[in-house]
Design brief:
Helix content: over 70%
Largest sheet: none
Mean pLDDT: 86
Length: 461
Amino acid sequence: MRLNPENRLSDDRSLYARIGALTWPIILQDLLSAAVTSADVVMLNFVGQAHISAVSLAAQYAMVLFMVYYGLGTGATMLCAQYYGKGDLRAIEAVEGIALRFSLLISALAALAAFTVPEQMMRVFTPDPELIAIGAEYLRLVGIAYLCWGVTEIYLAVLRSVGRVAIATALNVTAFSLNILLNAVFIFGLFGAPRMGAKGVALATSASRLIELALSLIVSARSRDVKLHPRCLFLRSKPLFHDFLKMAMPALINDVSWGLAFSMYSVIIGQFLGSDMVAANSFVSQVRSFATVLCFSIASAGSILLGHLIGNNRMKEADRAAKAIMRLTILSGLIGGVLILLTIRPVLSFARLTETGKGYLRVMLLINSYYVMGAAVNTTLIAGIFRAGGDSRFGMICDTIDMWCYAVPLGFLAAAVLKLPPLWVYFLLCTDEFVKWPWVLSHYRSKKWLRNITRDDLRLE
């Protein structure tokens, strides 16, 4: 299981081959993940603009939850990838148990809110009674998915951290494919099923997540190393728990803070800019998701590879790998921008929006054609390279200041106080990624993130 010290990344070809081997399964997984949410929009496009808008707003809670799981998962990955490079599987199990305890508690609270107060959850985003009613029905059903999601995301993160990205991807691909199929069945009432509209999206999501959890348990039962077993929850190690809090909590706070701030963009759009902007933003979000798949996948793969190298004390190779990852990130950002430009005409032809909504959509896509480069560089550095060396604190501070002291206040000021035109508000919101570039790039060049965070002679209780 341990990384072979003799298997050096001796040249650029071997380095890019290793990055590619880790990246392609993640790309497939992220493409299907984006396809699921895009399928929701595409299918609901035939049901009505209100359903698109309601599901788009209600799904902001899933996005925040994803940020929670992503923060916990990457926190676990930081430790697990380096302990995998070190060859300590027992420590990996203990870290998995720590992350699961946190995720189960958060999932239970989110599901309880979705079951009991969905109307109040929707009022955070919109005052529109129709959108509140549709979104509340969606949330009541999707709460089941929250309970499963918190378990599977942690387990799959740990699988990926030890290099088993193909198995993790296969599980996600199965769940996502089933989700898309069930979307069609329940939205349109195929094969004798009831025609459910937005509720069909929630039911499909919950059913697919239940099946993904069941498949994860099957994979775990056949695995010789990383298992999804209740015993992980009871493994104790004060040093590891301290390390997890020190490294995973800043990552969690970072991702949740960023996710909540990004959801505030939806609050600004929904409360002050009107339903046409909400509907247009639904389409833009899906296009951007596809355009950023490559760069975000490179960030995830790079984090795993760097963690293995750093845990094995191969610092010069890790530094060289980080430079290669950055070159690939810039290329992927350019590709993502071009893809958005190429989709403008077909998306406008497909979208069943008002003329005002289509006008908004065109300009918002143009803005996102360069915005993806900012997101690509920052995500690779903050969530990929820095975290591989256990440095999650810098990203937490940087993103929190950027989003909560700059972007969100600027958005509310522009929309609620100055009452600027909707597209000007959107343009200002999309400056957030570029404002932090000087600090992020400077921290990368300092190499303060390049450090081994594993411990020797761990004792587990």
